[in-house]
Amino acid sequence: MKIFKIAIVLLFFSVSLFSEIEDYSLSSQTYINSNIKILDTKLLNFPHVHGISALAYEDGKLYALSDRGVLYLFNLILADDKISKLSLYEKYVLTNTKGKVLKKKKCDSEGLCFYKDGLLISFERKNRVLYCSRKAKKIKKLRLNTLLENNANYQSPNKGLESVSYSKRYGLITIPEKPLKNVDKRYHTLYSKDNRWSFTAKGSVTDIEFIDTTHVLVLLRKFHYITRQRMTALVEVDLEDCNKHRVCKSELLIKLDSDKGWKIDNFEGLTKVGKNKFLMVSDDNDSFFQKTLLVLFEIKN
Q: What is the pLDDT of residues 57-90, one digit of tens each?
């Protein structure tokens, strides 16, 4: 028993010595034929910060959304193409218009972006997009494309609205993790209220972010439950180069495969932090065996 107590104490002190962010190497290999340059990767060790599924960045502030209905606010310093400092200073719980905490199926929050003076948040299970304050209080529910309004159209409750983005040109754009039922499964589709853009499916969609006025960056993943193989990919979609069937030109920018030596995890969140520069984050699923990784990368010209 005494040895057990000593072990517990040593474990406690070893955990307490971890810094909140640590350098991390995604791969020891040199990669070529990629349009992406990975600038920096950090392993996050913030106590009680888990399940991050979306990001939004603005003026040194990084909003990180948990799929358990919690919004974290960090101070972020980027310097010399590195994640120099990240500090947590606020946490909000998603609430309805009356200030009551969202519960059960209503709080599976997955996508995040800025909108007006607040935030847009997309949800799975009870699929919808809410306009919320920056302190995570619901202001109103927004109208979506009619195909997205019916939960019965989704492949499963857990394959819903993983992501959301907004532009003045196209308005609110969102996309299911998997193609809807009764559509061509070879393609993913981005939906605005009155339009749609399809592109070749290469995995499950976990986030989207505008690169510029007409190009969208799509984050995708694959996971094999038996072999534990993971794949993360980034695809660029041109919303103005589409055929008569609304299938648009797309380009695979990079593919990170654990079978090829990449030490990746479950990447779900994406946000733009500068011209052609982005952050992506992995969801640790509140699991001891998974990691929260924050990756800074650049799309090469």
A: 999 999 999 999 999 999 999 999 999 999 999 9
Give the pLDDT score at 226. Answer: 61
pTM for this predicted structure:
0.91
The DSSP result for the chain, as a single string, is -HHHHHHHHHHHHHHHTS-SEEE--S-SS---S-SEEEEEEEEE--TT---EEEEEEETTEEEEEETTTEEEEEEEEEETTEEEEEEEEEEEE-B-TTSPBP-GGGG-EEEEEEETTEEEEEETTTTEEEEE-TTSBEEEEPP--HHHH-GGGSSSTTSSEEEEEEETTTEEEEEESSPPTTS-TTEEEEE-SS-EEEEE--SEEEEEEESSSSEEEEEEEEE-TTT--EEEEEEEEEEEEE-TTSBEEEEEEEEEEGGGT-----EEEEEEEETTEEEEEE--TT-TT---EEEEEEE--
User: Mean pLDDT over all residues of the chain?
Assistant: 90
Task: Specify the pLDDT at position 31.
Answer: 57
20-299: in CATH 2.115.10: yes
